[in-house]
């Protein structure tokens, strides 16, 4: 009999008969392919046939001879009374729902019929996401877990409640061993219906340290996960937890052993019932307290060394990019985008140090002007510069009437800066050689205009967490019209520079869809009416905020929270409400608060005398309270600047703080409100759309981070994102809106930076930038503008980072003639005509030099030049390839003068003409894109050593094996992160240069360790190394 549920097995004729008898329609099937899932389905089918046959003939003395004969027969010749032949063509049964009322089942990312190991390395499916997906489709669940934490409960709470509401049963076995389990977690579990909990209190007898998550399915497609992860936030997300998935379909006996072991302990007298009764809670708390080590090993001593004297690798990447822009392109007005907490000021100090050393060498001045809008920022910056320069007397502060002794190296507030006085009295417009503008997104304000207009430094450096400014006055015009270098929030989190976050999207109690918007933001007065003036609405919302805060923080007495409000009135209302309606002590602060009030409030928050400060804009930037462990977004903002700054207030690292709780109250939004930018800013760049990321549980988050959206909050976000996708229509609208705001036609650089787009968001097989401009009626359409071949051409060259290649294109466009004998031309030509032999050179020239295409190419080259972030050099004297350059497969093979490059599909082959072993490696291989036999283990061991695996048919004594073993500096390595870009186009390869084997082992495949001639840059190393 077939049961409801999700499946991953071959559909049989018996299945069709049963379904026909019950008059049920199959809800979902798919054809079998020669991929891991399809092969596993066939193998499992054969295994089940054999198992059934063996069971029916176990007393047969001739069983083994018979099996030998049977194994040489086809599947249809195997007699079995319980398994019928598969349908033809082969089809995998994936889901049955006997009623339309049963909702579609959510599936785990991995097929149900394979085993797998989760090691927590970057690029893997996060363990927590797979556990949550298993919960959504299980019939019964068993947890055998030694340590259970409250935040572990919170991460799966929503999915468990849904599971229990549809009739599932949950059984939990745990212990008080070493006091690691949290009483509150089990108390919350005990409140759930259909939940059975048993606890082992005798840790001396049973030192329970087991961890297993079991998901039973009535259809025989169960899963069990056994490994090192407890039910805690860190264990479910940490990169150093290993867990094995055991499939009931794939390994029935191992899965059954896990069930039998669980049942053994479930019935053991060592485990006692826990249902949440008062006396049971008291017993549990007492037992946990007794188990805990009385010694407190947590130190509150802060590391006063904010940085090392040597730049970190991510800082060096930015410094390298600055050097490239200045030396290659003479771009000395640079804008750095670095997430809050990553040390923007440290990068600026190292940059200035390098400049000062060069100026000192040339016996020239190196006067510094550091400009910010708050004294606190200046004080922190001055301390940083003095440390980096090893000069405790460097620089002076000018602020609030303070007069410096010298103006040589000045740290000054914008309010105190008298630009015209500097120009006319104190040295002139060229007096300062190096000017730094901190929080540079303020640069669009009137107070900054004189600085940019009159002062003429040798170097202008802007620092910001994001260049967007909510008053629509762009700052790109002051910084060579673009961002020079950036480290975004996901990068900072991945590098461990910031504290991981647990982000909860809360369904707000109000509807903001009818609130008017002005200049891209909600009307503050109308928000005030909803959040404060409407007593019923305001009370209900504020009461829900209190309940939410109490639910999502594990200990309110240790909570140090910031709540960001609409305006002063709203902040005061929230503080009063908390103080009058709860035991949570609160204060309200704003920009009008005195310095003493701010200092007192900060001290009370740190000391635990209050738990939350409600504020409007005071803690957006510049003020450092690393102890903050909770952030509440109580105001909707369209500004990514404000969102990231406010989030950043809680992301600073601090001893004993393992994560930041983020409570974002998400309401139904107005049509022009944008939820997508905040989530895109939190995610690593992947191949999934934002909608798929949300539906799949945010797989591409930085390590140890977590996002959970409540049901209505998720609906509000998805509805909002759906109306704002990067379709041709929406992108065209954005171009017209930006044109109206800046009062000119936006360049490609301005457009992608304003809307925080990648070139991949613009270039795909359906559009180009010029086609969007024609849609906006900004330029006239010509023969080439909406050419699909043109779209593909732009997409294939939109990754180029070789200055030589770009200069060839730029000079050809300028002169409107091109050297067809040049190797760069061939690389360009094959990007337009894949079949080079049938390409029309004259037609290609007409395409290149047509007005719209030429204009777009020139703009694209400007963007690509600005994106160069690694020092490149020719691979060899006569090669068009650059070391660390990026190329499509066709481009790199054309550069190597390889015959018929478009016909070469293998990842490794020998170029006899050039005597080169060409290795093209995809680092993170997707099960849906590669067969199980081609999931080769290719990764960097360190910055100059690479592990590479041959194809499965290569043996040591073979001609190919010997050629590889005896290679010397003729193995040319190209790598890419993934097979496809986000826009579903094939990703290019980066050239890592020549390598020589230093060791090898095994065969079919052979495992090589390669020594590269040149070091792998940090940019590529982070993607290439097995353990990031």
TrEMBL record:
**Domain PLD phosphodiesterase, which positions?**
204-235
Signal sequence: where? none
Give the keywords, sorted: ATP-binding, Coiled coil, Helicase, Hydrolase, Nucleotide-binding
Q: Which InterPro entries match?
A: DUF3427, Helicase/UvrB_N, Helicase_ATP-bd, Helicase_C-like, Helicase_Restrict-Modif_Enz, P-loop_NTPase, PLD-like_dom, PLipase_D/transphosphatidylase
- Is Hydrolase a UniProt keyword of this protein? yes
Q: Which residues form a coiled coil?
A: 707-741
Give every Helicase C-terminal domain span. 548-695
For this protein, the parts annotated as crossing the membrane are none
Keyword field contains Acyltransferase: no
UniProt GO MF annotations:
ATP binding; DNA binding; helicase activity; hydrolase activity
GO terms in the biological process aspect are: phosphorus metabolic process
Q: Which ranges carry the Helicase ATP-binding domain?
A: 325-485
Q: Give a GO cellular-component term.
A: cytosol
Q: What is this protein called?
A: Helicase C-terminal domain protein
Classification lineage: Bacteria, Pseudomonadati, Pseudomonadota, Gammaproteobacteria, Aeromonadales
């Amino acid at each position: 009999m077939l049961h409801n549920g999700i499946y991953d097995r071959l559909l049989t004729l018996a299945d069709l008969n049963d379904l026909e008898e019950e008059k049920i329609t199959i809800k979902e099937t798919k054809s079998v392919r020669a991929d891991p899932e399809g092969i596993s389905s066939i193998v499992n089918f054969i295994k089940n046939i054999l198992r059934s046959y063996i069971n029916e003939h176990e007393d047969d003395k001739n069983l083994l001879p018979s099996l030998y004969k049977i194994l040489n027969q086809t599947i249809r010749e195997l007699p079995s009374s319980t398994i019928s032949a598969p349908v033809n063509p082969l089809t995998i049964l994936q889901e049955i729902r006997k009623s339309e009322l049963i909702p579609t089942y959510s599936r785990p990312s991995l097929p149900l019929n394979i085993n797998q190991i989760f090691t927590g390395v970057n690029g893997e499916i996060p363990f927590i996401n797979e556990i949550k997906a298993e919960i959504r489709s299980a019939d019964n669940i068993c947890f055998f877990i030694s340590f259970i934490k409250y935040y572990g409960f919170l991460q799966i709470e929503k999915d468990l409640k849904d599971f229990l509401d549809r009739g599932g049963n949950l059984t939990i076995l745990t212990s008080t061993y070493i006091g690691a389990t949290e009483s509150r977690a089990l108390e919350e579990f005990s409140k759930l219906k259909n939940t059975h909990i048993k606890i082992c209190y005798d840790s001396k007898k049973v030192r329970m340290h087991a961890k297993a998550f079991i998901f039973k399915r009535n259809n025989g497609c169960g899963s069990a996960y056994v490994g090192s992860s407890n039910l805690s936030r860190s264990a479910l997300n940490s990169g150093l937890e290993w867990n094995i998935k055991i499939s009931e379909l794939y390994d029935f006996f191992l899965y059954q052993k896990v069930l039998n072991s669980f049942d053994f302990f479930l019935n053991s007298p060592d485990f006692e019932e826990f249902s949440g009764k008062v006396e049971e809670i008291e017993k549990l708390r007492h037992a946990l307290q007794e188990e805990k080590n009385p010694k407190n090993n947590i130190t509150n001593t802060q590391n006063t060394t904010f940085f090392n004297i040597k730049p970190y690798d991510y800082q060096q990447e930015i410094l390298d990019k600055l050097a490239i822009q200045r030396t290659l392109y003479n771009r000395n007005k640079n804008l750095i985008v670095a997430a809050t907490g990553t040390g923007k000021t440290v990068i600026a100090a190292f940059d200035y140090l390098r400049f000062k050393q060069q100026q000192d060498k040339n016996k020239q001045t190196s006067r510094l002007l550091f400009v910010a809008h708050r004294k606190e920022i200046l004080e922190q910056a001055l301390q940083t510069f003095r440390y980096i320069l090893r000069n405790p007397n460097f620089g002076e502060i000018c602020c609030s009437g303070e007069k410096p002794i010298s103006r040589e190296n000045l740290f000054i507030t914008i309010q105190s800066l008298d630009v015209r006085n500097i120009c006319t009295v104190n040295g002139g417009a060229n007096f300062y050689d190096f000017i730094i503008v901190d929080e540079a997104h303020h640069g669009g304000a009137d107070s900054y205009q004189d600085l940019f207009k009159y002062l003429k430094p040798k170097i202008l450096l802007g620092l910001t967490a994001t260049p967007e400014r909510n008053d629509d006055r762009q700052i790109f015009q002051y910084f060579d019209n673009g961002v020079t270098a950036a480290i975004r929030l996901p990068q900072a989190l991945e590098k461990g520079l910031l504290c991981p976050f647990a982000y909860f999207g809360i369904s707000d109690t109000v509807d903001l869809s009818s609130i008017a918007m002005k200049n891209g933001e909600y009307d503050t007065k109308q928000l005030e009416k909803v959040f404060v003036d409407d007593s019923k609405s305001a009370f209900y919302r504020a009461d829900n905020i209190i309940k939410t805060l109490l639910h999502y923080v594990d200990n309110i007495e240790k909570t140090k929270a910031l709540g960001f409000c609409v305006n002063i009135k709203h902040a005061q209302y929230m503080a009063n409400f908390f103080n009058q309606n709860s035991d949570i002590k609160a204060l309200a602060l704003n920009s009008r608060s005195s310095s003493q009030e701010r200092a007192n409030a900060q001290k009370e928050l740190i000391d635990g005398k209050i738990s939350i400060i409600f504020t409007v804009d005071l803690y957006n930037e510049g003020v450092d309270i690393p102890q903050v462990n909770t952030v509440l977004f109580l105001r909707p903002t369209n500004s990514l600047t404000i969102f990231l700054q406010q989030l950043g207030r809680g992301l600073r690292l601090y001893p004993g703080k393992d994560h930041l709780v983020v409570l974002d109250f998400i309401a139904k939004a107005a049509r022009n409100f944008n939820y997508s930018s905040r989530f895109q800013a939190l995610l690593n760049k992947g191949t999934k759309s934002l909608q798929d990321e949300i539906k799949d549980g945010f797989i591409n988050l930085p390590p140890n981070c977590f996002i959970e959206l409540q049901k209505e909050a998720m609906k509000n976000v998805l509805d909002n994102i759906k109306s704002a996708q990067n379709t041709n229509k929406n992108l065209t609208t954005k171009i017209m809106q930006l044109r109206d705001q800046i009062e000119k036609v936006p360049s490609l650089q301005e457009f992608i930076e304003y809307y925080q787009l990648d070139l991949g968001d613009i270039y795909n097989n359906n559009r180009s930038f010029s086609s969007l401009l024609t849609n906006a009626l900004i330029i006239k359409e010509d023969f080439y503008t909406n050419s699909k071949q043109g779209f593909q051409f732009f997409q294939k060259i939109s990754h180029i980072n070789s200055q030589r290649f770009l200069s060839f294109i730029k000079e050809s466009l300028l002169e409107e003639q091109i050297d067809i004998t040049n190797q760069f031309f061939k690389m360009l030509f094959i990007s337009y005509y894949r079949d080079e032999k049938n390409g029309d050179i004259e037609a290609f020239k007409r395409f290149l030099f047509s007005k719209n295409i030429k204009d777009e190419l020139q703009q694209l080259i400007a963007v690509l030049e600005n994106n160069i972030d690694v020092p490149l050099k020719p691979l060899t004297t006569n090669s068009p390839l650059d070391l660390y350059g990026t190329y499509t497969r066709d481009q790199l093979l054309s550069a190597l003068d390889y015959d018929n490059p478009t016909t070469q599909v293998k990842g490794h082959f020998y170029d006899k003409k050039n005597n080169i072993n060409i290795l093209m490696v995809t680092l993170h291989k997707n099960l849906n894109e590669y067969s199980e036999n081609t999931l080769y283990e290719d990764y960097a061991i360190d910055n100059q050593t690479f592990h590479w695996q041959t194809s499965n048919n290569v043996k040591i004594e073979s001609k190919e094996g010997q050629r590889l073993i005896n290679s010397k500096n003729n193995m040319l390595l190209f790598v890419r992160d993934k097979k496809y870009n986000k826009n579903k186009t094939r990703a290019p390869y980066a050239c890592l240069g020549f390598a020589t084997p230093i060791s090898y082992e095994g065969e079919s495949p052979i495992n090589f360790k390669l020594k590269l001639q040149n070091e792998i840059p940090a940019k590529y190393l982070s993607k290439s190394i097995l353990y990031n």
